[in-house]
């Protein structure tokens, strides 16, 4: 029987997951990492308008998550961006929301990700946390038999090797994978496909820092507090100015501040990364890649900065491939151990 392998990357900005694997094609999807709690199941409330979300029951509350979660928004943007994120009910709601959208009742191996700096301290705890039976609401459950947690950029390295047809040559190469996320700026040094732990790390200098800094600059310009972070994010991604007080605001005037933050993140990385001339591959991935590209090129002027298609989902695609390669060996070892103990 074919093993069911799936992957989820619960990031601070977006939750990415594998929606389907068929005929060798890996399909990805994502939704904002926002979970809105309610005392009652949202669809059971009067006047509820159906939206693309699911309500995950945890500790007596229903956490609404999904692609259209912002239709459930209140004034407070319910995010949990701190080092104990995986211990929060919001993290579990996002994970279970992704499991619900996969539409499979049982998963033999679930691959999940962690920022590089958290891998050594939280790997075992996260694997234990996501293993077992998950209540996804409406009387349905998903059973996860085994879990594997890996560094988020390590998934991107796998994805890069596949996209660039380097699986046969990358084992002899040294790579630097840079993954700017919502909260953390992660980097990973690898020899072949193996992590070099003492040169890999992450700092809390991601996209959200840029957006908050730009919001502060806009607030100074317009003379009133401005906190529409989503509008700033959309403007930066599309190049279209946000509309404030019915007028287009020239977002370009705030870009020097964003670039300064990117330079700070890259400078932190450069203190860990030595002998940059030895890298055959410098790979930029992640949803915030476009905001950090210039600062990274400034730091590595003699290198070509390599990228992948659909960088937002690079990590989770790589998780899936790593899981599919790892699962047969894992379950074969477990079966042998069970037979030996019989």
Describe the structure.
Strand 1 (5-10) and strand 2 (14-22) form a beta hairpin. A six-stranded mixed beta sheet has the order 3-2-1-7-9-8. It has 342 residues and is an alpha+beta fold. The protein has a domain at 5-151 and 315-341: Nucleotidyltransferase, domain 5 (2-Layer Sandwich), CATH 3.30.420.40. The mean pLDDT is 88. Helices cover 35% and strands 27% of the residues. It is globular, with a radius of gyration of 21 Å.
CATH hierarchy class name of the domain at 5-151 and 315-341: Alpha Beta
Radius of gyration: 21 Å
Residue share in β-strands: 25-35%
Main structural class: alpha+beta
Mean pLDDT: 88
Task: Give the secondary structure arrangement, pairings included.
Elements (H helix, E strand, L loop, with lengths): L4 E6 L3 E9 L2 E8 L3 E3 L15 E5 L2 E5 L23 H14 L3 E9 L4 H12 L1 E6 L2 E12 H12 L10 E7 L4 E7 L2 E2 L5 E3 L3 H16 L6 H10 L4 E2 L2 E2 L6 H16 L10 E4 L4 H11 L5 E3 L6 H28 L1
Helix pairs in contact: 3-8, 4-6, 6-7
Short description:
This protein has 342 residues and is of the alpha+beta class. Helices cover 35% and strands 27% of the residues.
Keywords:
342 residues; alpha+beta; Nucleotidyltransferase, domain 5; 8 helices; 17 strands; 35% helix
